[in-house]
Amino acid sequence: MKIDILTLFPNMFEGFIKESIIKRAIEDKKVEINVIDFREYSKDPHKKVDDTPYGGGAGMVLTCQPIFDCVEKIRTPESKVIIMTPSGIPYKQKMAYDLSNEKHLIIICGHYEGFDERILSLADLEISIGDYVLTGGELPAMVISDSIIRLIPGVINERSHIEDSFNDNFLLDYPTFTKPAEYKGMKVPEVLVSGDHKKIDEWRYQESIKKTKEKRPDLIN
Ligand code: ADE
Fold this sequence. Notes:
The chain is an alpha/beta fold. It is 30% helix and 21% strand. The protein has helices spanning 14-18, 20-27, 64-74, 93-99, 138-149, 158-162, 197-215; strands at 2-7, 32-37, 50-51, 61-62, 79-90, 104-109, 125-128, 165-166, 169-170, 182-183, 186-187. The strands form four sheets. It has a five-stranded parallel β-sheet. A hairpin with a 2-residue loop joins strand 10 (182-183) and strand 11 (186-187). It is elongated, with a radius of gyration of 21 Å. The two termini are 33 Å apart. The protein binds adenine (ADE). Adenine is lined by residues 84-86, 110, 128-130, 132-134, 137, 140.
């Protein structure tokens, strides 16, 4: 999979691509990530990428030209163009699964007061990562990229994400424990040290349901 991220703040992605699982996925060629500074596409003599809103109002608005030129240059028939915006569809694990099957994602990060509305015509998908407003689309782009990349076969242990989902219902993870078997009087559940894997699987599944009902009843339908 190739992910092209269009941003005015490429340095924000340094840590994201240079650490841990994402770094390894890039090294193993499971994913290629290109962080593109779309200011470079501006035809303005001062490389301007924003302007004041028609009709007045606070802040600056991203102009069409640099983003259109950049997307039109890198887009192919296989590309899926995503715009990160608080007015997009709320992001869910199911979307991460669907997007992990794509060959090429182009993710556009806004900044300032927002985009010229005509930029939305470039997008196949507008995504929000939650009902709050961030200073830009960079963190949301990292959030969705991370959730997608970990689902690419071979990036992490498959079992880890098979357990994330159950028939499209997203269940919270079951409780996990490591050594010691007792800490400050708190004991690891007996079943986990029983060695009976059928019982352990059943316990984990039931605990997942219990935890989801307690903490996120909205996820159970
Ligand atoms: N840009 C600013 N806030 C955002 C959000 N909540 N989701 C996606 N993009 C955003």
